[in-house]
Amino acid sequence: MCRRSSMRIVRWFCAAPLALFLFSFQSLAADWPPISPEELKMTEEPSAPGAPAIILYRQVDRDDSGLTAHENNFTRIKIFKEEGRKYADVEIPFFKERGNNIVHVGGRTTHPDGSVINFEGKPFDKPIAKAKGLKYMAKTFTLPSVQVGSIIEYWYTIDFSEHLVFDSRWILNDELFTKHAKFSLKPYSSSYSNLHLRWAWHLLPTGTEPPKDGPDHIIRMEVANVPNFQIEDFMPPEDELKSRVDFTYSEDNDAKNADEFWKKHGKKLNGSVESFVDKRKSMQEAVGQIVSPEDTPELKLRKIYARVQQIRNTSYEVRKTQAEIKREKEKGNSNVEDVWKRGYGDGLELNYLFLALARAAGFEAHSIFASDRRHYFFNPALMDADKLDSDLILVKVSGKDFFCDPGAAFTPFGMLIWPETGVQGLLLDKEGGSWVRTPDLEGKLTITFTGLEAVSRRLEERNEDETDRKKTLEDEAREYVPAAIEVELTNKPDWVSSSDSLVAEYRLKIPGWVSGAGRRALLPVGIFSATEKNVFEHEQRVHPIYFEFPSEKIDDVSINLPLGWQVSSLPSAQDRDLKGARYVLKAEDNKNAVHLSRQLSLDLMFLDPKYYAALRNFFQLVRTGDEEQVVLQPIGARAAN
To answer: Is 1 within the bounds of a domain?
Structure first.
């Protein structure tokens, strides 16, 4: 069960008179360098040739020391080309439902002649993404009268939740080249808590001095000439590739090294888990209601897993307001007995219930806290406990290890969601635990969505109605075909179970797919090849290649020929094997039908850029093979036609 969130710790304050915080553009602007005549005249940046725009100056000042932590942001951008005018449309993401807010928004446009036009409109909130019932918002606005040669500036403050301390980071790379930037952090400190701040940096630009703590206890850093960040197909998580500084608050600051840090943290986690699951008698009674004495060990575990997944999982419900929670009078669970009797719990609590039931059934079972590789790759040396943000259960059955995550909705028995596969995890015990690695996942896609493909679609559509689900599957079918199609979902897929497959049946029509050539007709064989059509087009590669999980796509297509038509010629069979990647294509004449079989297998996850040329060449061969055609002609027509 992935739990993606920043560390939050309750603050302690002694009573003190409140001071009124006076905020104005002028008070912030005192720290910003003025626009120089040279910047007004700029038409290009030699360090970023061809760039449509660059960031001239950026400043981020974070203050965690007050009642409400806040962060002031300022950005100054020079527009070089017409396409650079799009940066006048500003979108500032924030997480409103967790108490964050964007305030004190302002901006202005300065033309090359020095004239200034202030932004006097009102920003509006716009939903940009949903995740597990939570809504991500963005504050959006457009700066006025932006032209080629203009300099645009905007500023805002992020207010965080009161009484809480959040981990933070400085991300140095941006979509645009950055000429100069300054960062600062005033940490939280209090005699009422044992919180300490540690920080680590990653891929700092050449010549950059690491952040330093000044005499005023403010941490500062300056950077110059930061390259723009390039987005590429199938690359590792952006956070792993961008220059950054990570700040982490922790109470375990006395650890001398990483091993000692994780031993202490492992003992603390283990104590918390064991306290929650220590209800052996009630769990034995529950197991008696789930399994039969004649069941095999694996069948017993499967039954326990299925029963746990029947319990209401609150992690995947639309987040309720405080009024709704109070009205429904739902209590928080203190232990696994509460979860079992009340019939609800979040994903973590369901995993703990599975752990307790498995032990009560006589299995050796352990809790594992692992890292979610969706956003970064875990490094124990950084001693950041918040990065162990996934939890799962390891159960030993007849000498075989089963990694299970019943708290992840729709995940079949013995399978993990893809961010939890192939990652390092801390297997807990009373001595502090030991590091293990979760198994890599194998999945495939045919006409039926299977494995992780089925899980992800059920998760994405869990709160939608049948009309939206139908449209989603129909739109996805359109994405596979490199032509305009008519498609209609004709069955009702099983959206609510944890079965391994999600079957979608369509009525499909592809107008004009068979083209005419004299008295012949040409039928391209790559009917479902659109997703590979534009992959790895660029000649050069900057970042490593990163596939979220190994995959296999199999197309099995039969096309009945019109009465009076026959196959004149078939393309040669293809079998391209790159060891980690394989492409197989075969077209067959089945008398009154054409049978097309296509397989694209990628047994890869992480590939060094030096292998990009070989991988790019492989996908070019895939595209070439998909463009091959079956030639059809009327029965009795001469081959010369």
So the answer is: no
